[in-house]
Amino acid sequence: DSVTLICSSDSNPPALNFIWFKEGESSSVGSGQSFSALQSGRFYCEAHNQHGSQRSDAVTVTVHHGAGRNVIVITAASGVFIIIIIIIIIAWFI
């Protein structure tokens, strides 16, 4: 699962670019006006124009990873295993 964060600015002149950061990390994690956070953490953006930059307040994001995909993978793998066993049993008796 993920959450999309959007950064906006009412600066004059308008912001030319946006850079996303995660607190505690030394490099940026994304760029552009929107950013999809795939992990939990505290994120903020910086809006830049020719006069400088301004940092937003950090927001806390908590991403919960559901078990739905894992269950589907396990079920599919179990189904394939059962089919292989059936084929082996049929081949054994033929």
Question: Can you characterise this structure?
Answer:
- The N and C termini lie far apart (48 Å).
- The chain is built from one helix and seven strands.
- The chain folds into two domains: 1-63, Immunoglobulin-like; 66-94.
- It is α+β, with helices and mostly antiparallel strands and 94 residues long.
- Strands 2, 3, 5, 6 and 7 form a five-stranded antiparallel β-sheet that branches. Strands 1-4 form a two-stranded antiparallel ribbon.
- The radius of gyration is 24 Å and the shape is elongated.
- InterPro entries: Ig-like_dom, Ig-like_dom_sf, Ig-like_fold.
- Keywords: Membrane, Transmembrane, Transmembrane helix.
- Pfam families: Ig_2.
Question: What key attributes describe this structure?
Answer:
94 residues; alpha+beta; Immunoglobulin-like; 2 domains; two-stranded antiparallel ribbon; 1 helix; elongated
Number of domains: 2
The count of β-strands is: 7
| Number of helical stretches of at least 4 residues | 1
Low-confidence stretches: 70-78
What is the CATH architecture term of the largest domain? Sandwich
Q: How far apart, in Å, are the first and last alpha carbons?
A: 48 Å
Average pLDDT score: 80
Short description:
This protein has 94 residues and is α+β, with helices and mostly antiparallel strands. It has one helix spanning 68-93, and strands at 3-6, 17-22, 30-31, 34-37, 41-49, 52-55, 59-61. 28% of the residues lie in helices and 34% in strands.
